[in-house]
Design a protein that fits this description.
The protein contains 4 helices and 8 strands; from the N terminus they run βββββααβααββ. It has 156 residues and is an alpha+beta fold. It has an 8-stranded mixed sheet with strand order 1-2-3-4-5-6-8-7. The model has no long low-confidence stretch (mean pLDDT 86).
Length: 156
């Protein structure tokens, strides 16, 4: 699957599903060079429920000397944050798990997450998640619980 950043550059998503883990890895390929620039990782908690464990996009890509030359001439970013890739990958994830019949996607937001991105709660809300108080089962340092019911996405 191909997604695009805000500048129209193309990226490929690779889906890896193993036992209880789903990983969406985002790659940028250019003239035979391939960089993994980000990922979303989820854990299946049951056949109908998934935990959103991690979303990460690189902030400082280090390239080989040859890769630096290509990046210079093709205006490749060093940071892959704030390019719309997280949103595009999350939308792909929601569509993917909806097709798989997953009924619930949930996760936790920690204070560390909010310190790194103060607009994170609004971003999740803008992408269809509800934000609730953390439950006793949430990970340590949770300040909020996010929850999405993919089967309800796209309905009026």
């Amino acid at each position: 699957m191909t997604i695009y950043d805000k500048q129209g550059r193309d990226y490929q998503i690779e889906v890896n599903e193993q036992e209880s883990i789903l990983s969406l890895e985002v790659y940028r390929s250019l003239h035979g060079l391939r960089d993994m620039v980000g990922h979303i990782k989820c854990n299946f908690q049951s056949p109908n429920e998934m935990f959103l464990a991690d979303i990460h996009f690189e902030d400082n890509i280090v390239r080989t000397p040859l890769g630096r030359i290509y990046a210079f001439f093709h205006q490749e970013p060093k940071s892959y944050r704030k390019l719309g890739l997280g949103t595009a990958t999350l939308k792909f994830l929601i569509k993917y798990i909806k097709e798989k019949g997953i009924k619930k996607l949930h996760g936790s937001i920690t204070q560390r997450d909010l310190n790194a991105n103060p607009k994170l709660i609004k971003w999740y809300q803008d992408n269809g998640f509800t934000v609730e108080a953390p439950t006793a089962e949430e990970i340590d340092n949770s300040v909020a619980r996010i929850c999405l019911y993919p089967q309800n996405q796209g309905k009026s």
